[in-house]
């Protein structure tokens, strides 16, 4: 079972990206499961994902990177027993630091293949997120956790802005 995190700040496009990737993998005959960590009381992302017929589990009630890591281990173990997915995507809340989730996977008691940590960078709100006092440090910590940084929403950006963000992200 391969485990891939799709992380990023609130509104960066995590759910949309996971749905698109999952649909393509399912078309190719892969069994995909998605674990969503929502902090709000209403599991909006889990509901949206399940409407596409995808297997989704919501781990709510806090941030998965700190207080819910035991729930993640249990959820992965149960998914393995009951569904045996080829691929598990995890969508941590927009306020999680992906590296803390990744490091906890090393203590799992069953085989898991860690894939890349993909952090989505919101191309529309990019400058705002990187310049806002306090928030910019948090965003940088998320980005530094990534194996892959993807600038999202580039269809709404001109070439100049894309190049600006590419340069900014290379220098973090």
Provide structural commentary:
With 172 residues, the protein is of the alpha/beta class. It has a single domain, classed as P-loop containing nucleotide triphosphate hydrolases (Rossmann fold, 3-Layer(aba) Sandwich). 41% of the residues lie in helices and 21% in strands. It contains 7 helices and 6 strands; from the N terminus they run βαβαβαβαβααβα. It has a 6-stranded parallel sheet with strand order 3-2-4-1-5-6, sandwiched between helices. The longest helix is centred in the N-terminal third of the chain and has 14 residues. The radius of gyration is 16 Å and the shape is globular.
List the SSEs and their pairings.
Layout: E1 2-8, H1 14-27, E2 32-36, H2 44-50, E3 55-58, H3 69-82, E4 87-91, H4 98-104, E5 113-122, H5 126-131, H6 135-144, E6 148-152, H7 159-170
Parallel strand pairs: 1-4, 1-5, 2-3, 2-4, 5-6
